[in-house]
């Protein structure tokens, strides 16, 4: 079977500022749970809550700079660079610089609000 994806679905994003998430492959747009692929566009000054997801996340930066903070380090990922964050590792993503960032995120298994485990969910 072949499934052509004509358009992405815009997904609501967590964080302090509006961020555009275009899911091409995943639980919402293609009803795919084995992995998800999304194009992200985050504005300058965007920051999301920390999280400890049950999925591995592969990220490739296309434009701007994505800051990736873990429990032990803080890394700035620039265009043409990529990062892999293992499942069950605490991580926080942000785009602190002017112009924000554009990047592709692949989650394995697919991203799910039930398995992302954001810091602010613990307070609810």
What does this protein structure show overall?
The protein is mainly beta. The protein is built from no helices and ten strands. It has strands at residues 9-11, 20-25, 36-42, 46-47, 56-64, 66-70, 74-77, 82-85, 91-95, 101-108. The strands form two sheets. The protein has a six-stranded antiparallel β-sheet, with no helix packed on it. A four-stranded antiparallel β-sheet has the order 4-9-6-7, with no helix packed on it. It starts with 8 loop residues before the first strand and ends in a 16-residue tail after the last strand.
**What separation lies between the terminal Cα atoms?**
42 Å
Strand content: 35-45%
Mean pLDDT: 96
Task: Report the structural category.
Answer: mainly beta
Number of DSSP-assigned strands: 10
Please report the number of helical segments.
Answer: 0
In angstroms, what is the radius of gyration?
14 Å
Order of helices and strands: EEEEEEEEEE
Give the structure's gist in a few sentences.
The protein has 124 residues and is mainly beta. It is 0% helix and 43% strand.
Secondary-structure topology with pairs:
Blueprint lengths: L8 E3 L8 E6 L10 E7 L3 E2 L8 E9 L1 E5 L3 E4 L4 E4 L5 E5 L5 E8 L16
Antiparallel strand pairs: 1-2, 2-3, 3-10, 4-9, 5-8, 5-10, 6-7, 6-9
Which key features would you list for this structure?
124 residues, mainly beta, six-stranded antiparallel β-sheet, four-stranded antiparallel β-sheet, 10 strands, globular
């Amino acid at each position: 079977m072949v499934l052509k994806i004509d358009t992405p679905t815009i997904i609501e994003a967590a964080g302090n500022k509006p961020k555009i998430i275009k899911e091409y492959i995943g639980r919402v747009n293609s009803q795919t749970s084995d992995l998800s692929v999304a194009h992200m566009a985050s504005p300058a000054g965007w920051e999301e809550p920390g999280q400890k997801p049950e999925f591995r996340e592969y990220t490739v930066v296309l434009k701007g700079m994505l800051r990736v903070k873990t429990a032990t380090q803080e890394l700035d990922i620039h265009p043409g660079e990529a990062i892999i964050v293992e499942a069950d590792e605490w991580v926080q993503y942000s785009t602190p610089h002017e112009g924000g960032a554009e990047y592709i995120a692949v989650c394995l298994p697919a991203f799910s609000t039930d398995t992302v485990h954001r810091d602010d969910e613990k307070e609810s």
